[in-house]
Description:
The chain is α+β, with helices and mostly antiparallel strands. It has helices at 4-22, 41-60, 62-70, 78-85, 90-110, 126-148, 158-167, 169-175, 214-221, 237-245; strands spanning 117-119, 122-124, 185-190, 198-201, 208-213, 233-235.
Amino acid sequence: xxxxxxLLTDLAAESEQLDALVAGLPPQEWDHPTPAxxxxxxxxxxHLAWTDHVAQLAATDAEAFYATVTSTPxxxxxxxxxxxxxxxxxxxxxxxxxxxxxxxxxxxxAAPAGEKLPWYGTRMSPASMATARIMxxxxxxxxxxxxxxxxxxxxxxxxxxAYLGFRTLGHSFAAHGRAVPTTPVRVELVAPAxxxxxxxxxxxxxxxxxxxxxxxxxxxxxxxRHRADxxxxxxxxxxxxxxxxxxxxxxxxxxxxxxGSVAGSGDDSARTLA
Length: 274
């Protein structure tokens, strides 16, 4: 059984790690561009604050959540408009994000067991919602770290991102208009130091396989790096095709990164909606 309390603890820790990265930035640094075209560091944090807010609505007031969709004048700009609506001076934005993520954690902890929460195009359990928030917080943290030219330590929390990336194999193909494969894929990843030796998902006897560092796999499925820049090995046609389309986030396919690009690459996948 999934331990929701443990997931929420990891979500809080992931948020706090990113908080520590931005909290001490001079106000002008919040205007620094990130890989998402037109998005600054402030936009990235505003996006997380907005998404935490609508996730809290999904957990506490389904009618209000649906209103955020039906009241949108341009559905194609839902994510951008959400981030823009939460922009504020750095101190106020930081306080808004902190309060919102705390409220979301409390709402998910209080959600009745077995309840499915509404989300964009699907419904999610509180545990799935918490996992998705970990993934998105980490992924947007990568955008900010890339923009600042810094590296963040990989932690055992990446297991949640890796698992979500594995679970969304079918979605990845469907989002790109491709037939969802029925061939099983085995994923074997070298975990970050101190988090165990290997994380494995899928049938042990599957012929199609993806192997490599867990950090690289997480960067791939969140489209924060091009596969050519990662130490991932695909064996079998389905596994190989998957590495071209993998995305652990909801919505239409992102354009992804180009080979050799890190910060400022102009990739739409940096705007994710878990």
